[in-house]
Amino acid sequence: MIINVAQVRRDENGTAHFDLKEDFSAFESELEGITFVAPVHVQLQVNNTGDSLLVQGTIDAEVNAQCGRCLEPFHYMIHQDYEDEWVYAPQARSEQEETVLVFDKDEVELSERILEQIVLALPMRFICSSECKGLCPVCGVNHNLQSCDCDQDQVDPRLAALASWPRED
Ligand SMILES: [Zn+2]
Ligand SMILES: [Zn+2]
């Protein structure tokens, strides 16, 4: 994902708005078990402060994930705020280099920055719905779809591990 800041960079107090959609499937290997359903949508407001470009925006993405309770695949929506500071290389001070994005030409490559934010937005465990009833720890049926008459005390030890996962209600 590349944006051209030629204009806003040269105009002190300048602002620019960017609305970008890009296929991020090439990065799926960095995201365990997650695939993108649609292009990632990034909206950015870029303000030139004189010293740097201050960037504020939002990232919207939709991914395929597996529910940690019922194990069914579902679509998970990501909406993440993004704030960043981009500094033109000749103006960058050495202590800034760990926190800001240093760019050396008008085309700023921000895929890695966006990907970092997407990773931050992913939950520890995906839950398809707060109503999800999960799997029966005895027979393994999906309780969202089907009920069963199992005696919950007769737990298959393999499924018990699933049943004992903390619930985030
Ligand atoms: Zn579920
Ligand atoms: Zn059952």
DSSP, total strands: 8
Sequence stretches where pLDDT stays below 50 over 5 or more residues: none
Quaternary structure type? single chain
Averaged pLDDT: 90
Shape: elongated
Task: Give the biggest sheet.
Answer: 6 strands, mixed
**Run of helices and strands:** EHEEEEEEEHH
Cofactors and ligands:
zinc ion
Number of helices: 3
What would you call the structural class? mainly beta
Number of domains: 2
**Proportion of strand residues:** 25-35%
What does the radius of gyration come to?
22 Å
Quickly list its features.
single chain, 169 residues, mainly beta, two-stranded antiparallel sheet, 8 strands, binds zinc ion
Structure overview:
Helices cover 14% and strands 34% of the residues. The chain has helices spanning 6-10, 111-121, 157-163; strands at 2-4, 15-22, 35-36, 40-48, 53-66, 73-88, 101-103, 107-109. The strands form two sheets. Strands 2, 3, 4, 5, 6 and 7 form a six-stranded mixed sheet that branches. Strands 1-8 form a two-stranded antiparallel sheet. The two termini are 37 Å apart. One zinc ion binds next to loops. One zinc ion is lined by residues 67, 69-70, 72, 128, 132.
